[in-house]
Write a structure and sequence with these properties.
By secondary structure, the protein is α/β, with parallel strands linked by helices. About 35% of the residues lie in helices and about 20% in strands. It has helices at about 50-55, 80-95, 110-120, 135-140, 160-165, 185-195, 200-215; strands spanning about 5-10, 15-25, 35-40, 65-75, 100-105, 125, 145-150, 170-175. Strands 1-2-3-4-5-6-7-8 form an 8-stranded parallel sheet. Helix 2 (about 80-95) links the parallel strand 4 and strand 5. The longest helix has 18 residues, at about 80-95. The chain is globular and about 45 Å long. The structure holds zinc ion.
């Protein structure tokens, strides 16, 4: 069973790792790259509004596993109202193509909670790079969000680690994102925080990934 890297910006040649390569709208997929990818308009690119056309035109493809990363960022990109409009188009696209969504969220969890209540999506919404407080994690879990944890798990006594410890199995995944850290290290750290065997974690996350995210068409 392979390691799952739910969200990465750097492909690895390691055959032990199944990774979801993130493609930002407007950039090209490396020609030799096969396998799962996500496609979305990042909030940091939201000033280039014309890129949304690429999302609107996006077609189903069995290697397209997620729409994203997309989301909201209080500190970067276009004004929040514009970011919300751009995000809504992507959320609708995800429903149309029947793909889960990978969300980037900085300082906008309340906005996302409101959007989820208004939207009633059928697809999973996954908060990537989660580093929030366990209380926030609980609130988001109740609203049906899933989570993905990365390098924040290495912060000693950090909120990400505490959130990981209180969230139920099946509600979260692991990722390397834009760090140079191999995903195996993130698994090791998560296993240490949870006092469980790495092999057990590996098989659990693999099965959960296949169950929830492998596209049916
Ligand atoms: Zn990322």
């Amino acid at each position: 069973m392979k390691y799952i890297d739910l969200h990465t910006h750097q492909p690895t040649a390691n055959p032990e790792v199944l990774f979801v390569y993130n493609l930002r709208a407007g950039s090209q997929r490396p020609a030799d790259l096969r396998g799962p990818y996500s496609y979305g308009l990042h909030p940091w690119d939201s000033m280039q509004r014309e890129l949304i056309e690429l999302i609107i035109q996006l077609k189903t493809d069995n290697q397209l596993f997620f729409i994203g990363e997309c989301g909201l960022d209080k500190f970067r990109g276009a004004a929040l109202t514009a970011q919300k409009q751009i995000l809504e188009i992507q959320l609708r696209k995800a429903e149309e193509l029947k793909r889960p969504v990978l969300l980037h969220c900085v300082g906008c969890h309340n906005e996302l909670l409101q959007m989820k209540q208004a939207f009633h999506p059928k697809q999973y919404w996954v908060l990537h790079g989660f580093r929030g407080h366990p209380r926030l994690a609980e609130q988001l879990l109740k609203a049906g969000f899933l989570f993905s944890f990365g390098t924040a798990l290495f912060e000693k006594g950090g909120k990400a680690g505490q959130s990981l410890q209180i969230l139920p199995q099946g509600s979260w995944f692991l990722e390397s994102d834009d760090s140079a850290l191999p995903i195996q290290e993130v698994y090791r750290q998560a296993a240490a925080l949870l006092h469980c065997k790495e092999a057990e974690l590996k098989s659990r996350l693999y099965q959960n990934f296949m169950l929830k995210f492998a596209p049916s068409k």
